[in-house]
Model the fold of this input.
Amino acid sequence: MTRRFIPDLTEEQIADKQLEGLKWTVGHVFEGSPFYRSQLEQAGVAPDDVKSLDDLQKLPFTTAEDLKDGYPMPLLSVPEADVVRIHGSSGTTGKRKILAYTQNDIDLWRDMFARCYEMAGLTVEDRVQICVGYGLWTAGAGFQLGCERFGAMALPVGPGLLEIQLQMLTDLKSTCLCSTSSMALLMGEEVHKHGLTDKIALKRAIFGSETHTPKMRRQFEESLGLEHSFDIIGMTELYGPGTGLECEAHDGIHYWADLYIVEIIDPVTLEPVAPGEQGEMVVTSLQKEASPLIRYRTHDLTRLIPGRCACGVTMPRIDKIAGRSDDMFIFRGVNIYPGQIGSVLERFDDLSAEYQISLTRREGLDHMTVRVERSPDGSSDHDESLAKAVATDIRKHILVRSEVKVVAPGTLPRSFAKTKRVQDERGEE
Ligand code: ZN
Done:
């Protein structure tokens, strides 16, 4: 099958492109970036030392700290006059991360994103409602650039603005929704509430930027009447969203391995994990000019999926992002990722996908309360036995005691962006 945007490369051809890109990148940053030059010199590596892909292991890691230290234009490897744009991340604490782009960087990002729309099975006839943040954030700009490059119609609504969202869905008959999974859930609820199910024309959704459970996904796929939904990956440090997308086989996310290298490491030992095992994703860009990345630690947890995909695309795959290594919390000596709680809840058909974990400390002892919403068609009669069953399962699978409360649908706070699953109030005893 010929595709307009996704290249059909063999494993060898991808490896050749990776080696060529790695050599170029190391030479480029050595010449252009005092930060990278000093990093490489400290590691005792010169650009000529990169002769094979195995030599990647010799290169030093780059971290979010390095980006902060280099504020406001970290990792800059070209003259400022060559920078045509900057984007920034939300940055939870302190200074935000700001990354610079040359025109070539923007063009490449646009082409990568066009690959995503192609992967999602869209055509130029599609109408793409973009419900993500515009401005400093990369999300809006990425979805927009890619849509125009691909040739579909962009409806740039931005996040929130529910009334306008519903108006666009019904009047302009958007066929593809782009949003966070929380926003897609909320839109599904609103469409239902206003009786608009038969008046909208959505077929597909591209969603991302936060971890989701299969249950959340089924919920918004059903309420919006979707044929398919696709998980998208991306981060400001590596252009933005659009660096990979799930395909119609729904068995992992294809990433653009001709444009960046993915390594999976153990976040503690920093050594590569065994093939197929979960660990922290580390990325190295291959053509990025303004702010290249060399072994950048993303803190995203995932694994490489071995083998070829049934869809026929040869680009390799990673699993959906299972969480962030820094989202982990420690409860009574046990390391827990919020997604583990989500996976337990997944097994109960009478529960919805919305949940919240709160951690408190009383008399020196930590307590965990998990609040989860009953499914919209469930009855409150079984709340107590359901809560008990969930607590038992959490104990069995995660080895901790928790108090579970089943609450009415719509009780827990909703968010347009990323829903905060964990409230840690243990410092406020
Ligand atoms: Zn595939």
The chain has two domains: 1-327, 328-428. The longest helix spans residues 11-32.
